[in-house]
Amino acid sequence: MTERDEHLTPFAHAANNSCFGCGPANPNGLHLEFLLAGDGSVVSFPVVSSAFDGHPGYLHGGVIATLLDEAMSKAVRAKAKGLPSMTRRMEVDYLLPVPSESPLRIEGRLARSEHRKHWAEARIVNEKGIVLAKATGFFIEVRPGPSKI
Where in the sequence is the domain holding 22, given as residue range(s)? Predict the structure, then answer.
């Protein structure tokens, strides 16, 4: 499916957000933009620069993990009424090399929630619909107030 077929709506970020993955205020970041699907999942359609390569022409594994982490985090935030969450655990399956400078589709969805605990899934798909990488993650909502660190 393409973006036009899915009736996606923008999933806004604060202008001063300096997150490496999605922050528009981070000059060195990925500047990912996510869209919200009707089922509550999130989708992004980036073309990631070769500046984030590991091997020439292919994204670094840490960047692939970041793409998947961002999608899961946004899926959690979409379902948790905007409350931010932090990754507690994440597992990535690198199935095929992920090309840089090529259109990608990143999908994230919430699998289940229990109070402040959320489990999510994400995947990266190429133009042909082939899954290149996928991940599962466990997230904890961050509540406002003093830090317990």
Answer: 3-141
Would residue 49 count as lying in a domain? yes
- pLDDT tens readout for residues 11-21: 776 656 778 77
Q: Which CATH number goes with the domain that contains 55?
A: 3.10.129.10
End-to-end CA distance of the chain: 44
By three-state DSSP, how is residue 3 classified?
helix
Residue 55: CB atoms within 10 A of its CB come to 10
Q: Could you write out the DSSP letters of every residue in 42-109?
A: EEE--B--GGGBSSTTBB-HHHHHHHHHHHHHHHHHHHTTT--EEEEEEEEEE-S--BSSSB-EEEEE
Q: Which residues of the chain, if any, have pLDDT below 70?
A: 1-5, 13-16, 146-149
Question: Does 33 map to a domain?
Answer: yes
